Amino acid sequence: MFALKHYPEQISGRELDIYLARGWYRMGQTIFTTHFLCFEKTFYSAIWIRQDLQGYTFRKSLRKILRKNDRQFEVSYRPALINEERERLYQVYRQDFPGVLAPTLLDSLQDGGFSNIFDTYEVSIYDEGKLIGLSYFDIGENAVASITGIYHPDYQKHSIGFYTMLKEIQFCQDRGIRYYYPGYVVPGYSRFDYKARIGAVDYYDLRRNDWFAYEKLKKQHIPIHQMELQLNELARLLREAGFAARIKYYPLFEANLFGYWHLPYFDYPILLLFRSHPSNKVYDILIFDPRTQLFQLLRCNGIEDFQFYFNEQFLNSFRGPRFFMELINVEQVLLSSRSAEVMSQSLKKLAAR
């Protein structure tokens, strides 16, 4: 599945390394993966990245940030602590943040509870005894995952959020840890670009299930662009054959992260609706899977009362013909092909029955 969440009661350093190497990440006291995102009704790929620290050195611009801030501020490392001082800083940061954050730092890191299944450390930044920056990171056997960073808005010009990432990398180097995972970047959405500034990072390739140089990632290989390109070609062929084929986007693609039941939820963000039976909520849906490079026709079933999964405000924001808004799960694969032409011919035969 593209989006999935696990709920371990405890997680060892070795287990964390394995999860991270497969493109997973921490969410509160769970661990999850996702490969697509939606911002302002536009759909993107989440590209997980990591920095191999074997032979790694900070380039000149990063050394400059380190030297300047090291002279001005005090830095300390310790096992993660959540207290009143850190919550105050979090609330100041949260009010200035251009997006949605958890109500409290405790909610963000520990789902509001007081136990932690991860081995979490913090790097804290002080200006003459005042806490102005803070970041938390999880430690595995041979990897570190950067989880969250906060800072006082008055110090924005000092790049404190990025500075704490560099200090996390120094922590890894001091301990001989090889891999540093800062999360994902989102091609076409610049808000996360800063994560790739740390060096020559690698990215997790869904199709090859391995890590490759991010600088070599081309637009046509980004999963969401592959899906759009291939489905547009299939839609063109179907229209030429007399079918009403139009791409639709599916905002409910992350149901696996929020659903109450363990079901094979449909988790593709883009689709072609081939035919439907609204009376009994059965849908035959065409997809292109960037992992297998296959076109598939999927028989899907609608799920009642899905308002329990997604709030009404979210659902209403996506009304319109561009979106498919039925929560569905996959029942079976009806057809598969690597070729849009072959799939089009197979669909014509299927429709003629």
| Order of strands in the sheet with most strands | 7-8-9-10-11-6-12-13
Q: Give the fraction of residues assigned to helices.
A: 25-40%
Highest-level CATH class of the largest domain: Alpha Beta
Arithmetic mean pLDDT: 93
CATH topology of the largest domain: Aminopeptidase
**Largest pleated sheet:** 8 strands, mixed
What shape does the CA trace take?
A: elongated
Q: Which second-level CATH architecture of the largest domain applies? A: 3-Layer(aba) Sandwich
Through-space gap between termini: 32 Å
CATH superfamily of the largest domain: Gcn5-related N-acetyltransferase (GNAT)
Number of domains: 2
Q: Low-confidence segments, ≥5 residues, pLDDT <50?
A: none
- In terms of quaternary structure, the protein is single chain
SS field, number of helical segments: 9
Number of strands: 18
- Main structural class: alpha+beta
Q: Into which percentage range does the β-strand content fall?
A: 25-35%
Return Rg in Å.
23 Å
Secondary-structure element order, as H and E? Answer: EHEEEEEHEHHEEEHEEEHEHEEEHEH
Write the layout of secondary structure elements.
Layout lengths: L3 E3 L6 H9 L3 E3 L2 E4 L2 E4 L2 E4 L1 E6 L7 H13 L1 E6 L4 H13 L8 H6 L9 E8 L2 E10 L3 E9 L8 H16 L3 E7 L16 E4 L4 E4 L9 H18 L6 E3 L5 H4 L11 E8 L4 E8 L4 E9 L9 H5 L11 E10 L2 H13 L1
Parallel strand pairs: 10-11
Antiparallel strand pairs: 1-3, 2-3, 4-5, 6-11, 6-12, 7-8, 8-9, 9-10, 12-13, 14-15, 15-16, 16-17, 17-18
Description:
The chain is of the alpha+beta class. The protein folds into 2 domains: 214 residues, 3-Layer(aba) Sandwich (Aminopeptidase); 130 residues, no CATH class. It is 27% helix and 31% strand. The protein has 9 helices and 18 strands. The strands form 4 sheets. An 8-stranded mixed β-sheet has the order 7-8-9-10-11-6-12-13, sandwiched between helices. Strands 14-15-16-17-18 form a 5-stranded antiparallel β-sheet. A hairpin with a 4-residue loop joins β15 and β16. α2 crosses α5 and α6 packs across α9. The radius of gyration is 23 Å and the shape is elongated. The protein starts with a strand and ends with a helix. The mean pLDDT is 93.
